[in-house]
Amino acid sequence: MHPSCRRCHQLDHIIIRRRQLRSLKQCRSMHSADCGINHALVRCKLQVTPKKFYQTRPKPLPLVDVSSSRDTLRNQRFQELLSSKLDSATLPADPNVAWCTTRDVIMSSALEAYGHRSKAQPDWFRDNVDLLLPAVAAKRSASLKVTVRNSRSAHREL
């Protein structure tokens, strides 16, 4: 209550960002809480949702190109690489570590012998580059003409 006019004025406010205004559910000023000063206790209820933490997916293992597994030369190279790497690798007594070592040796040998698998879908631009490049060049030159001389005939060409 103001001492001279005997009216209640709200002196205290809650500051909130505009984008968080929807999270503000209820706001009250409590005049019954007597603090001995002309301020009122202000309370609000917020509905707060935690921020989502997006986790990145780990990089997948490289895939082996198995389409060339019918080639006898590549199969012989894979067998030679695998036998030489297994002979040189020391397998520990722990079976989990031994399996991980064997798995890594097999994967590295297969990648060296057969190579990496390419994309599942072919690149459509690379397959049709002889048709697309002239069209892109014509579109680019027409767009350049429009920017240089802004006329109706230039817009018709585009």
Query: What proportion of the residues is helical, as a percent range?
Result: 40-55%
Walk across the major sheet and give the strand order: 1-2
Question: How many domains, as an integer?
Answer: 3
Mean of residue pLDDT values: 82
Beta-strand share of residues: 5-15%
Structure notes:
With 158 residues, the chain is mainly alpha-helical. The protein has three domains: 1-49, no CATH class; 66-114, no CATH class; 124-157. Helix content is 42%, strand content 8%. The protein has five helices and two strands. The chain has helices at 72-88, 95-114, 124-127, 129-148, 152-157; strands spanning 24-30, 41-46. A two-stranded antiparallel sheet has the order 1-2. Helix 1 runs antiparallel to helix 2. The longest helix has 20 residues, at 95-114. The protein is flat. The mean pLDDT is 82.
Which features does this protein show?
single chain, 158 residues, mainly alpha, 3 domains
Brief overview, please?
With 158 residues, this protein is mainly α. The chain has helices at 72-88, 95-114, 124-127, 129-148, 152-157; strands at 24-30, 41-46.
Detail the topology: elements first, then pairings.
Layout: E1 24-30, E2 41-46, H1 72-88, H2 95-114, H3 124-127, H4 129-148, H5 152-157
Antiparallel strand pairs: 1-2
Helix pairs in contact: 1-2
